[in-house]
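Fig. S4 source data, part A: sequence.
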Amino acid sequence: MIESNQLLFFFSALGAFNGFILSIYFAINAKKKNFTNYFLSLLLLVLSIRILKSVFFFFNPHLSNIFIQIGLSACVLIGPFLFLYLKSYQKEEKLNWKKHVIPYFVTITILGYFYPYVEHREIWSTRIVCVIYTQWFIYIILSLKYLRPVFRKIKEKESLKRLEVWFLGIYFGVAFIWLAYVMTPYTSYIVGALSFTFILYLIIVLLIFKTNSESTFFNEKEKYKNKEIDKETLNNIDQKLSVIIEKELFLNPNFSLEEAAKELKVTKHILSQYVNEVLGKSFSSLIKEYRIEKAKKLLESHNNYTIENLGYDSGFNSKSAFFTAFKKTTGLTPAEYQKTCLK
């Protein structure tokens, strides 16, 4: 093997090896902290099996056919485990993992038994693999549902939590690897393995910098788990939330979650949980809604406001931020909204 091929083998195989190591890490982590990481562990495991098959087949085309069959079969579970991992963080949805795993596992096992790769290479290469990649792609599309809140935050130019950045990395990493394999007829068979190594090292970088003073990264979801807000506290927040509106505290451009929590006499953690789980939005989105309602009232009662003054008087710290938020919420510009009020 010449030097360039040795380097190519090293970097492509390195991803698969580290994938196995991370798979074990997340499996152990799941036992101790977070059950959902089992799906991440299994996702990395089946990806690593698929990548390892690619690496060894590329450098040794005479590889045992049974190993090739196992590598291809692993692909049928990549999409489902991606879907289940992202879905597992949605508290309101029931997680029925069996219907997403067992049928595919049984089907590919039966196919492998009656149509072993060693005797039916053409069927596997032209039909079975095509079906597997199509199924993988369908699950990539289905998984988008669980990233909608993240995309909404990006659209609204809100800062993302580290866990949300992690989800995006996992999702687009799997999607890119799928694309790399689909495009192999036009590129090279080893591209998928190399892309996995590259993406995996990006994930490792995130893993290294996972800890900060406020969250545990992989367990951000866990901070609310098994900590239901009691009914008395819920009623208390429901009643006191109107204080923020009545006193128009949100008109302060720097009004924060911490200040709101002090006003409502609850912890910042409880208020954040309430806004996220009960109201289904972020604190910044809630305050933005209050400010837009204030702007609408000002437009309905005055006709001499400039956009800039209207924004500042509504609690926004810039003209552009106000204009964007107002149009997104109402579907109209401030001027268009005022015209509808005067009709």
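Fig. S4 source data, part B ends here. Residues 240 and 246 are 10 Å apart (CA to CA).
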